[in-house]
Amino acid sequence: ADCYKLPGEELIKTLEQLEQVFETLESVAGSHIALVRKEIKGHKELADLKVDYSQLFVGPYCVLAPPYGSVYLEDQRRVMGDSTMNVQERYAEAGLTIAEIFKDNPDHIQAELEFMYFLIFKEIEAIQEGSHEAVSSFLLKQRSFLQDHLSVWVKDFVQKIEKHSQTNFYKGLAMATQTFISEDFAEIAELEISEPAPAVVSG
User: Fold this and answer.
1) CA 143 to chain CA mean position, Å
2) Confidence of residue 200 (pLDDT cuts 50, 70, 90)
3) 138-167 pLDDT, tens per residue?
4) C-alpha dist (Å) from residue 170 to 88, 99, 132, 142, 150
5) Distance CA 51, CA 6 (A)
6) Any long-range contacts for 37-40 (C-beta under 8 Å, 24+ apart)?
7) Maximum C-alpha span of the chain
8) pLDDT surpasses 70 at 4
9) CA distance 137 to 160
10) Which three-class secondary structure state does DSSP give residue 46?
11) pTM score of the predicted model
12) Phi, psi torsion values for 108, nearest 5 degrees
């Protein structure tokens, strides 16, 4: 998620940490991050990335690789469609709201990746607490969100980045993103997850 912010000095450290995480997870995505990390050597590369970032994801006249799920999921290729509302509902169901400092749409790639991070964090927390029902609940939320949103539109998003990006950095980042989402979804899809028992209401 942090890699889809406007590039700054902190990006180098973020990439180093991300490469270590992917190595621990034995993810193929790590090879893409290792390559793109070498693309950044100083201020000039960061300046080039900012230009590429703006052309790909911001505009102003033409957004070459829109970072919003609704653009790829809606028939009219429009932002803030029904799929965006569904994303927002899922955030709310998990007890989340969009931070005031985040000035973009709820289905921005950055927000959706952060939501997946939150669900994984809560799953780990539930495992540590021995709450099997909570573990199942957060795993189901992850699988459902990947199935209905992230894993559905990320391929088209990545194709646009590969077609229009002027830097190897964003091409490599796009491939790392698609690779990891595919790996994660494949792993979760194979799990046998029990549905949480319905609440019993007396009266």
Assistant:
1) 13
2) very low
3) 999 999 999 999 999 999 999 999 999 999
4) 27, 26, 39, 25, 18
5) 10
6) 37/12, 39/167, 39/168, 39/169, 39/172, 40/11, 40/12, 40/15, 40/169
7) 68
8) yes
9) 34
10) helix
11) 0.89
12) -65, 145
What is the spatial distance between Cα 96 and Cα 88, in angstroms, rounded to a whole number? 9
**Euclidean distance between CA atoms 122 and 86, whole angstroms:** 21
Burial 17-48, CB ≥16 within 10 A → b, else e: ebbeebeeeebebbebbbbbbebbeeeebbeb
Distance, CA of 159 to chain centre: 16
Q: Using CA atoms, how far apart are residues 102 and 183, in angstroms rounded to an integer?
A: 28
- Residue 151: CB atoms within 10 A of its CB come to 19
**98 phi, psi to nearest 5 deg:** -70, 130
> Which of 197, 186, 149, 192 lies closest to 29, judged by CA?
186
Q: Residue 94: which of 128, 71, 73, 117 has the closest Cα?
A: 117
Structure tokens at 75: 């028939």
Q: What is the pLDDT of residues 36-92, one digit of tens each?
A: 888 887 778 889 999 999 999 998 788 999 999 999 998 766 777 889 999 999 999
The tokens for 182 are 């595919």
**What are the angstrom distances between the C-alpha of 117 and each of 121, 139, 160, 169?**
6, 12, 24, 22
Average pLDDT over residues 29-42: 86
Q: Report d(CA 77, CA 71) in Å as an integer.
A: 4
Residue type, 88: Q
